[in-house]
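Loading example: each entry is read as two labelled lines plus one structure line.
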Amino acid sequence: DTEVTQTPKHLVMGMTNKKSLKCEQHMGHRAMYWYKQKAKKPPELMFVYSYEKLSINESVPSRFSPECPNSSLLNLHLHALQPEDSALYLCASSQGLAGPTDTQYFGPGTRLTVL
Amino acid sequence: AQSVTQLDSHVSVSEGTPVLLRCNYSSSYSPSLFWYVQHPNKGLQLLLKYTSAATLVKGINGFEAEFKKSETSFHLTKPSAHMSDAAEYFCVVSDIGGGADGLTFGKGTHLIIQP
């Protein structure tokens, strides 16, 4: 089973709202990732958690706040977003192996619209 | 440093004819290479991967790719296109850093299937 689930599928929020995106995997993977994808572009890495510790933060604005409560769950807390933050947010997980063979499996994404 | 070039931004083929999506890479190390497919408003699905075993890799849905080190290429092929193959395809390279730290995405190739 290579399934990563994400909720919600769609989210519309105002610039003053606080919301959260959720990602879950039950493959025993120890690395989890958040990506942002704009239309007709490849995904851009935002955050990496390795063994539940934040290992990479790609200079993402503080209005995005990741959280990894346990090895199966990854959240992305959103606050005071801008319209340009509207995008598809993808979660991925991998075994967390060192080296190039580590393979990432992606969830279906959350389509976020900021009004 | 590593890079990926997908040589065509759009490819159009007729249903039942062969598909060729081209990918060239550069890497200072022995890389792993991946092809992902993304249907509209969906997440990325792993089609196949090369991780230094057999150079001809078979994936899902009849796709395959051949790693050619001398040509630094990893082209994706399918003998007979199906309407359901219409999607965006990403070639991805991972080298010594592994995981997200070592991943580089190509810009994507949009595959159009003509009836």
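Chain A touches chain B at residues 2, 4, 6, 31, 33, 40-43, 45, 48, 50, 56, 88, 90, 92, 94, 96-109, 111 (CB under 8 Å).
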